[in-house]
Each structure stands twice: as C-alpha cells, then as structure tokens.
Amino acid sequence: MKRKDPIPEYVVRGVQSEGELRAANDLMAKTQLPNYWDSLGWLESAGPVWAGVKREHTRIALADAEMVGALRLLPLTLRIGRARLKAVGVGWVSTPPAQRNKGVCRALMNDALDYTRDSGAAFSLLYGIPNLYHRFGYVTMLPEYSVVVELRAVDTTLVPPFRVRPVTKDDISALMRIHEAHEARASCSIVRTAAHYRSQFISAAPKTPYWCDWASAQALLDGRGKIVAYFMPQTAAAELHIKELGVTDRTSCAALLHAATITAREAGLGSVRFHVPPYHPFARYLEECDSVHQARHFANREGMMALTDLEACLNAMLPEWKEQMQRKGLNGLPGECTLVVSNAACRVISDNSGLRIEKGMGRNRIALDGQDFVRLVTGYTHAEDVLTQKTPRLKGDARRFALALFPKRTPFIWPIDHF
Ligand SMILES: CC(C)(COP(=O)(O)OP(=O)(O)OC[C@H]1O[C@@H](n2cnc3c(N)ncnc32)[C@H](O)[C@@H]1OP(=O)(O)O)[C@@H](O)C(=O)NCCC(=O)NCCS
C-alpha cells in the first residue's frame, strides 16, 4: 500500500461532547460491520455500560477540525496466575475509506498506546485484522482452544438428575464462583467482577455469528436447586458452539455434556464444539470421551498484545513469582536477572529479604524486544527457547532463576469477554 505524501498532522483526543460521541459512533458503525444498525446499537447502548468505560475512551482523530478516524478503549484487568495486571483494550479502529492510507490509524494507535501507558497499564490488548498491528508493537499470543464431540459418540439414554433453566441476573454470584474456581491456571483471562457480569447482562450483544450472549445461557441445577454447571449455546450452520461454560465436579461435567448434546440434537446439528481451554476440568473430562481437542494458533492477527510499561508489569507479576519460587523450592535463593526490553531496564532481584523489582541495569541481562517479552511473560512461548536464542551465555543459577520466572502457560480469554 503506497502512502500519499505529505502526511497530514492529526489531533487525537477523547470525545468532548455528546455531539462528538454521536459522530464518532456513526463513523465507527459505518466503517466496520456490514450491519450499520447492529454496530450503532452496540456502540450507543451496550459499549458504554461496560464496567469502567468513560466518555474519553472514545478517541477521535481530527484534521482541520474534521473527524477522520475513531476507536474505542476499554479498561481491563488480566490475570497471570496470582498476578493482576492493568490493561487497556482497543476496539473499533476506524478510518473512513476517503481518509485511508494517510496515517490516521497510526495516529490513533500512537494515542491509544500513550493513553494506556499514562493510565499505568502494563499492556494494550486487541483482536486484530491480519498484518496490521505488529507495526505498533503488538504480537499474537492468544490461541483459540476447542473440543469437538460428535453427537453419535454420546450416550444420552442415561439422563442425569439435573434440571435445566435459563440463567438470570440473580445467578451472577453463583456464576462468578464457578468461573473463578478454575481460572488460576489461565494466563491473560479477564478478571470478572460483579459489575463486569452486570454490564454483560445489560449489553445484549448483536446477534451476529461472532458474538455470544448471556441471554442464551442455561444453568444446570441439582436436587436442592443449586447451580452446579452452566453453558452458553450458539447454533451455527454445521455445529453447536458452547462459547462459555462452567462446571463444579465430574457429575456436573456429565450433566453438561448431556444437556449440550440434547440442545444440539433439537437444533438438528451433528456435533458440539466446546470453546474450552485445555487446563479446564471440562476439557479434561472430555479427554475420556471420543473427542477432538484443537489448538488454533494465528500469525499476526486475532488476540494480540503490546507491552506499554515494563516496570508496572514486573511489579504486578511479583505475587505470582513469589508463588512460583516457593513452589519450586527456590525461595530466598540469591538470584538476579536484568530485563532489558526495548529501551527500558529493570532488575528482578531475589535475596533473603524476598523478591523485588528495581529500575536500571544489573547482572544477567536478558535483552528482548517488547513482542518477545509479551510472549515470554504470558507463557505463550517456552522460556528455554527464548533464552537459548537470546542469551545463550546465561547459565547455571542465573538461567534456573530466569526459567522459574517464565513457566509455560496457557493464554486464554473466554469468547464472552472478547470486545
Ligand atoms: C484498517 C484501517 C483502520 C487502516 O487505517 P488507515 O488510516 O488507512 O491506516 P494508516 O494510513 O495509518 O496506515 C498505517 C500502516 O498500516 C498499513 N495498513 C493500512 N491499512 C492496512 C490494512 N487494511 N491491512 C494491513 N495493513 C494496513 C499501512 O500501510 C501503514 O503501514 P506503514 O506505516 O508501515 O507504511 C482502515 O483501513 C479501516 O478502517 N478499515 C476498516 C475497519 C477495520 O478493519 N478496522 C480494524 C479493526 S481490527
């Protein structure tokens, strides 16, 4: 794509009035999904009720006071084990056709990254179109996981003693408890609060094949009326998708498989695709059935993240790292490594007073670009591979220390939390 010169100067800022917000929503709805009214409906009613969203999160690019582009930001908290990391999501990146290839998107993305950094967030997260966002420092790190079960492989003659009914807003605390119980092994999954659930319940998503919705979710209740499992079915042409689910024990896994199979059969479909990560107890339960377990990796598109603040990231990682060191019997072991990421340097120091982060250069340097670091800290890549390639001379205790900080993990964000 050839850029027309000269590149105009843009002012990029948050919208400042209802009129500007309406114009920005109109621009984004026209530029994005084929259905203008679905998009506008989401931007005007569903998006603004998401927990933590402010008016200034709708960012616009202006050229001589004309609005030439817009995007939406969304504040998020991500988990990596015990760590809780502030992040800002980016969505609806839009330049109308007449303004394209003149640097509008670049100006919007630079502003989004500055805004994220200024808000003290460690990461910027987005779901990207192919081959665009790497140039702004993002790297793909969210594979999609699913397990496919053919209906003919499931015995539905034994009916588990559970009642099925639609999920309601009154179930939020039960849903939260079930979800939380299995997320410790996730990397990057979004930390849900009651407000997060409430906003998702209000924001009935547009009925496009991509978005799933709590309005369709079903709860499974035991004999005492307690929710023991839930699932969110979505019919597609070839299979039934279950894009969100929760279980409590093996019996509830059997009940969920039964309920999903019946739902698929009633819809005239031959298989069910459970969008569930491999660490989840339901995926492990399905390993005992006839099933196909898939991991789909993407190159330079879909779930991508950029590092915006190394020090904030490392400080947020401390509770998780302390846990890792304890688990590996390395507590109090003297150790140090210096992470040099892009132009920032921070030391991770372990001694008898514990584990701490200090700004600046120190021993055992590991120099990485932001993209390699994102993949390392989220556990997308194997630390052995990164260290062998980037710091072949890091040996002995120093290497052992670095390996303890960066175990292999499973980055995963549940489809209902996509934005
Ligand atoms: C994608 C989109 C935002 C790009 O906007 P733009 O203002 O034309 O982009 P810019 O002129 O700032 O280009 C920035 C860089 O991205 C590249 N680029 C532009 N459009 C691209 C595209 N569709 N795919 C891949 N790269 C693209 C440019 O070549 C340029 O690269 P360079 O700086 O290395 O030379 C715009 O085409 C659009 O609104 N498309 C429809 C909506 C959409 O798909 N949004 C993205 C949602 S994830």
Description:
The chain has 419 residues and is of the alpha+beta class. The protein folds into three domains: 11-142, 3-Layer(aba) Sandwich (Aminopeptidase), CATH 3.40.630; 144-294, Gcn5-related N-acetyltransferase (GNAT) (Aminopeptidase, 3-Layer(aba) Sandwich), CATH 3.40.630; 309-407, SCP2 sterol-binding domain (Nonspecific Lipid-transfer Protein, Chain A). The protein is built from eleven helices and 20 strands. The protein has helices at residues 18-31, 36-46, 104-118, 172-180, 194-202, 250-266, 281-286, 310-327, 370-377, 383-390, 396-405; strands at 11-14, 58-63, 66-80, 83-94, 123-128, 139-142, 144-150, 163-166, 186-190, 218-221, 227-235, 240-247, 271-274, 292-296, 302-307, 335-341, 344-351, 354-359, 365-368, 410-411. Strands 1, 2, 3, 4, 5, 6, 9, 15 and 20 form a nine-stranded mixed beta sheet that branches. A seven-stranded mixed beta sheet has the order 8-10-11-12-13-7-14. β16 (335-341) and β17 form a beta hairpin. α1 runs antiparallel to α2. The longest helix has 18 residues, at 310-327. The chain starts with 10 loop residues before the first strand and ends in an 8-residue tail after the last strand. The mean pLDDT is 92. Bound molecules: coenzyme A (COA). Coenzyme A (COA) binds next to β4 and α3.
